[in-house]
């Protein structure tokens, strides 16, 4: 008998412990860890957002209560709305790119005529095993504005001129998207491949008998069958894109001139560069509320919770 089984048996035999309360007692340790490492930091962040906290007053109880002043300052700051717009644009473009790449690669590695599928699937998930900061640093070198940057070398080999990737706003934005797609496409491929394997072959065969070609079968058979899993994965990866910090910060700190400053980078800069912890906390809480509302709306609209027991 294991230690856990022995402890459960003793707790069950204990007349003081009600059997109906045993499940609650078993989850108490995990609940304590959650409260210590998740709920307390969030509640403290909420508190800081209503104060004028700065490095000299943090954790010393000397910060002053300012009410909604931080939220008013943030919501009337033009840089906040620029960051919000750029962030949602980044979410839209990066998710679209990740979905296209994920479905495209998924169709390739599940194709009946493709050989070496296991090897290809193993190679596809390699980016998941690499540290994010390492991969992002490599991509920063690829998109270097210098002549030796790999992207510029490819452009010159094609007879085109070099591009100042990280010094021009939209070139840097494209570099963000490509890097984000590289980091997240293995996740999309895993979900897509799992969904594709559940598509009924009988439906494909019936469509082929009716004379449907590859694209017709994809639009009317494959896509409806994988829609819900891909939508679920898209919502998760959209949340990850919304919270992206490392790519813009490592590339050019949201530049040039803060034009590509995503919302999380903006909050970080306000808190740690300008030492306005109260405003930084307010920005982060606004980001949490926005992404939370976005995910709930998409789960509801996409009917992804259908069939879940409400009890």
From TrEMBL:
Keywords: Cell membrane, Membrane, Transmembrane, Transmembrane helix, Transport. It comes from Haloferax profundi. It is found in: Cell membrane. Belongs to the binding-protein-dependent transport system permease family. GO terms for cellular component: plasma membrane. The keyword Membrane applies. Residues 84-298 form the ABC transmembrane type-1 domain. This is Sugar ABC transporter permease. The chain crosses the membrane at residues 24-47, 85-110, 122-142, 173-194, 281-300. It is a multi-pass membrane protein. One of its GO terms (biological process) is transmembrane transport. Pfam families: BPD_transp_1 (PF00528).
């Amino acid at each position: 008998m294991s230690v856990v089984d022995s402890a459960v048996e003793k707790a069950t035999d204990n007349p003081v412990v009600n059997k109906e309360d045993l499940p609650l007692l078993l989850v108490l340790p995990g609940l304590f860890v959650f409260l210590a490492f998740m709920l307390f930091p969030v509640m403290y962040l909420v508190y800081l957002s209503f104060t004028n906290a700065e490095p000299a007053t943090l954790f010393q109880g000397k910060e002053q209560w300012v009410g909604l002043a931080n939220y008013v300052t943030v919501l009337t700051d033009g840089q906040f709305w620029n960051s919000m717009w750029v962030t949602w644009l980044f979410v839209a473009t990066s998710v679209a790119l990740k979905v296209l790449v994920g479905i495209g690669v998924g169709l390739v590695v599940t194709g009946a005529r493709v050989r070496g599928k296991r090897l290809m699937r193993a190679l596809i998930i390699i980016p998941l095993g690499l540290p994010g900061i390492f991969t992002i640093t490599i991509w920063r070198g690829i998109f270097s504005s210098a002549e030796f940057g790999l992207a510029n070398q490819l452009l010159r080999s094609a007879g085109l001129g070099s591009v100042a990737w990280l010094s021009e706003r939209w070139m840097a934005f494209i570099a963000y998207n490509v890097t984000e797609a590289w980091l997240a496409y293995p996740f999309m491929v895993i979900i897509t491949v799992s969904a594709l394997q559940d598509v009924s072959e009988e439906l494909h065969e019936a469509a082929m008998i009716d004379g449907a070609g590859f694209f017709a079968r994809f639009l009317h058979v494959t896509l409806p069958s994988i829609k819900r899993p891909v939508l679920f994965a898209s919502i998760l990866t959209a949340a990850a894109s919304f919270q992206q910090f490392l790519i813009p910060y490592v590339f050019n700190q949201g530049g040039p001139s803060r034009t590509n400053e995503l919302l999380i980078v903006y909050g970080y800069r306000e808190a740690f560069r300008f030492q306005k912890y109260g405003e930084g906390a307010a920005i982060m809480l606004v980001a949490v509320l926005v992404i939370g509302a976005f995910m709930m709306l998409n789960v509801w609209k996409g009917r992804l919770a259908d069939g879940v027991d409400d009890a």
